[in-house]
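From the pipeline queue, job 12 of 40. The input is one protein chain; the requested action is below.

Action: predict structure.
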Amino acid sequence: MKKKAMALMLAAAMATGLLACGGSDGGGTSGSATADGASGESEAAASGEDGVYFNERQHLVVAFPTWTGSPVDTEMVTEKVNEILTEKYNIEVEFQISDSGSYKQNMTLALSGGEQIDVMSTLFAGYSTMVNQGYLLDLEEDNIFQDYGQGITEVIGKEYIDACRVDGVLYGVTNTRDYAVGRGCMAIGTEYLEGIGYEIPEGAEEIISITAEELEDIFARLHEKYPNLEVYRPAAVDLVQQTLIDQIGGDNFGVILGDSEELKIVNLFESEEYKNFCKRVYNWNQLGYISKDASTDTTSVVTLIKEGVLMAYGTGGKPGSRAQESVGCGRDMTVFQTREDYVSSSSVASYPWTIPITAADPKASMILMNELYTNAELADLIIYGIEGRHYEITEDGFLDAGAGTNPDDYGTLGWLYPNQFASTVPVGNSADLWEQTEKFNNEARKSPAAGFAFDSTAIATELTAVSNVYSEYQRSLEFGFVDPETVIPEMLEKLNAAGLQKIIAEKQAQLDAWAAAK
């Protein structure tokens, strides 16, 4: 992150009046601020000298999810955010924060009802779904991205911006994060590893690379030493995290196998990759590693680890994984990896930040988005809260989210924020965490379909039908409660009858057209 260069670029933009624009306040009244057309106390502001770009206060609504909804101190943090934004742009924000389970429904109801939302994350809402439903603006219409999003371009880069285009149209911008994922990762409580006498190899990296056979040996020893504890708890995301597949269109109904360099859509449920995954988890279940109520119990793995009843769970690997898992679980965790680092086709454009069609003033929205991507002070504030109350900065410059007088009263999903790389590195990580993450992204194996976006409109009916069939079998099969040798063929027959082959054919046709256009 070249913060100095970024600041110079933004200063230049201000000096030339590029960010000066008109807009509407929360009540919809129009105002204007131009480089040479203002009077009274607004004149200096309009020129860009004081950084304020609107004569009238712009009230913008920013929507995003967290796991549990709006934190206790959201209003307090919002006030601090608005102190920065009103002084600089005469913009104030209102955060509309939903829990992960209700976010999609809340956003759909709000947008379909014409409610004002000015900047929005599409996590859990579905980027392609929002595009197909016509809820998102073209960010390049009237040149708003080119004129007011200069900082975003520098932060993200053209390649990753273009990856968010749908049929050539830019409806959203990805956030800075780990686009790659270390596949085949397992987080295991360090105290249990010490209990079985496991010794971390000398010179091992933060994530320890092992074979699948070595993981089997560790699990066997854990079960023998701690027979009353659950060794491993499956999760619905484990299929993707523990295998090497590219979910084209974000589902399992037609994928690219991760070890393939071909743009070929295959039936996952006929593949050895899927069979081997299900057989391994089935074997673990037969050996007693998995709780008998795992397929119905909705308790999170983090809670089970904290309660001391679970020893291991699957996760995605990345720089900072060990610190992230340890902080989340409240106890030291060791992370192992058995597969490659991989960038899937949709990982970059999985959940971009967008401007909905109900935005009061798209130009004001873009100015705000640009600030979210470039302002380090806002990054720490919106992700972690207020220094001294929700976190402390250590003597060596790291952010301690467990400190402060009220650390539990605020916190959002740091990896969801527009530019996490602008925030202070949390304690327990290397000072160059963000540089490591960029290197991790660049060096990971990339899907040959990276940047491809699937339009599911033509097979929406079939997708619903196969999804219903899959939901009947997924947890029992992928949590190891039924024999995959007999149940996979049964599920496959029903999936084909529900239209799976039509979905695969449509994905292949669109992928071929995309490749030809490139």
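Job complete. Residues 1-50 have pLDDT under 50 and may be disordered.
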